[in-house]
Amino acid sequence: MAFVTINAVRIAGMSAFVPSKIESNYELNIIEPEERIKYVTSVGIENRRVSPAELTSADLCFHAAKSLIRSLAWNEKDIDCLIFVSQTPDYILPSTSCILQSRLGLSTECFAIDISLGCSGWVYGMFVISSLMASARFKKALLLAGDTISKVVSPYDRSTKPLFGDAGTATAISYDDSSDGFIFHTAVDGSGKDAIIVPGGMFRHPFSESLLEYHEFEDGNKRNELNLVLNGMDVFSFAISEVPKSIRALLDYASMRLDDIDFFILHQANKMINETVRNKLKIPKDKMLYSLKDYGNTSSASIPLTIVAQDLDLYKSKILKCVASGFGVGLSWASIYFTLKDTVLLPIGVI
Amino acid sequence: MDLDDFVKNFAEQFNETDPSLITPETKFKELEEWSSLISLSLIAMADEKYNVKLKGDDIKKAVYVKDLFEIIKDKK
Lengths: 351, 76
What we know:
Distance between the termini of chain B: 9 Å
Shape of chain A: globular
Radius of gyration of chain A: 19 Å
Number of strands of chain A: 19
Helix content of chain A: 25-40%
Radius of gyration of chain B: 11 Å
Order of helices and strands of chain A: EEEHEHEHEHEEEEEEEHEHEHHEEEE
Structural class of chain B: mainly alpha
Structural class of chain A: alpha/beta
Helix content of chain B: 40-55%
Largest sheet of chain B: none
Number of strands of chain B: 0
Oligomer: heterodimer
Number of helices of chain A: 8
Strand content of chain B: under 5%
């Protein structure tokens, strides 16, 4: 198993932006009116934020980054590294991180790359960015994680449409030799690639007009080849088995007990998955953070979005020990231990 | 792995269905309460009680309650 400890890094701040348009699952016409309450109670998602055509993941992350840089009083030219994590980049090429370097006014000497991951992406991004900070001796770095999955779901698909919302986030990481750093566990199983996939539009199945045709499947849902396919049962089975193992393994490796942790932040998949994981690990309810109800599943943005969605001012001067776990598309999953102390957590911005 | 226990565990995933309606010979997808949410509960039950990872296809190809029992038994 892949375990890594990275010392002398801390989370300096976090921020998130969401689109202003709210869609309610209580008003979603693809779910029968008499089933809506039961559905919402089971998946735990009431509302989702949905981007208009002209607003991209990069735009949401740009605004999150801009406000965070300002709040931290960082100088743009001092930022050594920018990583953009997304499954919904602006272009096939170039990398969105290159565009964001220029939009944010960062130095041309800044190290910039994209990482193509979704639900596990923020944790993988934290791994890569902190590893680079340790090896390249970067002092200040930005991890931008965001997705607009609402743009790839079929409006006629009950298995995806009610679940996904859009958000962009920024996490600022700085060098700090007094911090106890981050601890990671990462894992991957590409044999599960078909469980969450957009089959067409890239190079395996390049774009052609026929990909736009909608097909009706045996479950009654309609999709085209550019839409997201989600095999909810396989994802559920994977998540409830692997996520508790990953979190337990991480805590074992770190020589910590569950009781030592103040907050657990899971990727916001749906309530059934997250509560099953919580029950398996016997995590008390008040230690598990959620943002599902108002924002749904926001893919790579979900963990930082969930953190800034809380009112953690209460704990300001305390060191908060946190474990977060991202899991999903790939299949890819990863867990991280980190602390929040004097971390700037901005209220969620709306655009 | 005991069939009677399994049928009991299976029936517990339903809220509105009389447990007496659930036997090894029940075509469970024909039960009025059957839904995709119950299939997720069954996956969680297989994981919790039998430590078996049920896949979507396993549930898809099972017709009778006893089919699912056999699938889980084979995976154990």
